[in-house]
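step 4 of 6: structure.
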Amino acid sequence: MQSEQIQAHSQKKILNCKDIIVKFGEFTALNKFSFHIDRKEIHFLIGPNGAGKTTFLDVLCGLTKITKGKAVFDNDYDLNGKPEFEIARMGIGRKFQAPTIFPYLTVQENLEIAMKQNKKVFSILKAKMTKKEKEKLDKQMETIGLTKQKTLIAGNLSHGQKQWLEIGMVMMQEPELLLLDEPIAGMTEEEEEKTGKLLQELKKQCTIIVVEHDMDFVSKYAERVTVMHEGALLSEGSMEEVQNNDKVKEVYLGSKGAV
Amino acid sequence: MEGIIAQIFNGISLGSILLLIALGLAITFGLMNVINMAHGELIMIGAYTTYVVQTIFINYFPEGLFDWYFLFAIPAAFILAALIGLVMEVTVIRFLYGRPLDSLLATFGISLVLQQLARSIFGAPNVGVQSPELLSGAVEIFSMSFPISRIFILILVALCVGFMFYYFYKTGNGRRIRAVMQNRDMAASLGISTRKVDASTFAIGAGFAGVAGMALTLIGPIGPTLGTAYIIDAFMVVVVGGVGMLLGTVAGALGIGVFNTIFEYFTDASMGRVLIFVLIILFLQWKPNGLFSINTRKLD
Amino acid sequence: MAISILNKLRTKKGLFYLLALLLALLPLMMSNFYINLLGQFLAFAILVIGLDLLWGYTGVLSLGHGIFFGFGAYVMAIYVTIESSNGAVPDFMLWSGMSELPWMWVMLSNPFAAIALAIIAPMILAFILGFFTFRNRIKGVYFTILTQALVLVTVTLIVSQQKFTGGTDGLTNLSTIFGFSLSDPRTQTVIYFITLALLVGIFLFCYRLVNSRFGKVLVAIRDGENRLRFSGYNTSYYKILVFTISAGIAGLAGMMYVLQIGIISPSMIDIIPSIEMALWVALGGRATLLGPVLGAILVNTGTTYFSENYPDLWNYFIGLVFIIVIVFLPGGLMSLGEKISKKWRNFNAKRTNTGTFPEKNS
């Protein structure tokens, strides 16, 4: 009875990470960090610089190898040692901190190659744009507000537009788990607002983990927040709970005092 | 057994020349991310400088002093190659930072020009440089003979590498070079003149190529395309050794030199080349970034 | 009507058709000697299209294409040698004490096997090298250096295996193919048109490729390979495939080349010719397909004309041109053309090509 309950509980989780340790040489970037997240939840990761937030995202998308510990996606897919392209095909999408789009392709072409499809060499070789795909692309361009820029070379977009394009590209992969690294960095207030709305749209389709420094933005959109410090978990809960946590106050005041 | 020892000695000797050539390549690749195809022509310049110094000694100095020409040839080869390297850096290379493939092709253009220049001045046929009496002959150790010229080259390379290690790890300039290598923007914002560091480092690397050219005159005749024969092997040293670490370059050069001569000993010259190529490809399966490399988190 | 034709001509495909038409008409007004020369340049033009696919679009620079070209040329030359001498053992083999043709040669005495192998053999070699480098994510510039080493190794091998390959002299005794004399101008004119037809075919094949979704993926590999992996692409396989295709095209080019020049030797496929091939691409304009074709024809015409009359000056000139183009004109001649035509039609800002070559690449 009890074990069934546990199983039902863990089925609900899309990601289960236990005691993850990541070392770069002598430096420990993640120190026994455990984390799990429900489906269709939006979860913010915050913490001072060097807390290990980006490293954690790197682990999840296959950029960084786990030194010790376990990260399991979708109940039975062990992420450790898997190549990036395979993790992406399994349904984890990553948006990097600096916008990394393909500057010499048009907006539509960027989305086209990111789109969920069989990405093996020979099926891409045979691929032709179907009507259904065309509609999907048009819809996505409308969602990220780049319909007018459809045939524009992506390198010529503004910084904010590039950020949205990349979010759009990750969305085209139709991931089950979306990893966003500082999506509003360098955006104007107006653009921030738009991005926030976009996030709430996206939440209906997938689970989202966001790394963010902008506390106003976090408190506005967060459901659950995890605070990291020196590679380990400091506190977890709603924004309010976290804000009133003594340990968090100490770390943040301390680091703010240093700046 | 004696055959093997002789081969290992020959291998180290070949490796030491490769090392002298690859030193400059490895540092400039690590520092500016440029690959200099015209490095071979800097060798050629060093060799012709030696030839000119020797000719001057023959014509203008008493016969008894002839043997000492090489003492003048070494600094002359270094300085001239370094100066031409500096001119290359200032006029062409500095536009190519971070574009290794383009730098390789553009410097190929430079090497075409320099080769033609050598042909125009010295003529297309090879010329011989007479080795000084002091360095000809051989020493006998345990009934095996080692050519003095080869031993001289080994000592010369050891001195150059020793100097480079000292310069790189113990002096202010060396510290600046390493700083720029690891984080160019940060180094620049801390007030290091990256332009000066780049140009001077490039010139020193070029100078060593010139010294290597001087050493090659002790081994055989020289010609306008002298450098072409060595440049690809020197590139392979950089690939095997990894970027930006002197130790990797040393290990790579000696490794390639020794394996090359051993393979040649057991097969023949051309099969030896094939085997060393296969060996390098296999080695890269194990260490794709060379012997020593720094792990970073950067996406590119 | 006139305007719509003009509009078509402004695209690269249209310009290429115009060029092909010109190349088809040129033999009418040229002597046999020049038709033959131009035919050789067209063989180079075939090669550079494949090289552009690899370097211009995918960002992978091979400085070993001389070898793939050489494979095609040698395989064809061996067949022609056997045919020309009715299966007799060539002199250079007799001198090395061989009284029978080696099995490799016997295999190539069948014309179909020879034609197939001229294309497939370079592809196999490229596949093997590509597999062991791209799979391991060996740095781009390391790959380029390895292709140079491949040239060095192969050329050394060809020279040393004199009894099989003719050594430094190469294969020189090429006189008939399928019973037609290679020195007959009519045969040469036919070969010229076959080469031209292959050039058009290869161009259209690559043109379709780069404008398909596959082509967009190639450009994405060039501009952000690591990013693309996170979108679910195993980029290594794409690079292996493109490298293999490109090598096959080079083999085809070599096959057509040797039939027109009538000799193949190691010095023609050595390190320097291999680098020069890449420079024709750069000079014409990377990632344009048409530019490299123009680059190959122009540079070779220049070399033929000037290196006979002013060999020293030509060496200085071409060296300087290479430096200047790479450093200051990364888009090559095509970007010059584009800059001019942009001014002429700045009312139509629509983009016509996929991915101009980026100025920064690694």
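step 5 of 6: annotate
 - Confidence is low (pLDDT under 50) at residues 347-356 of chain C.
 - Chain C touches chain B through 51 residues (CB under 8 Å).
step 6 of 6: archive
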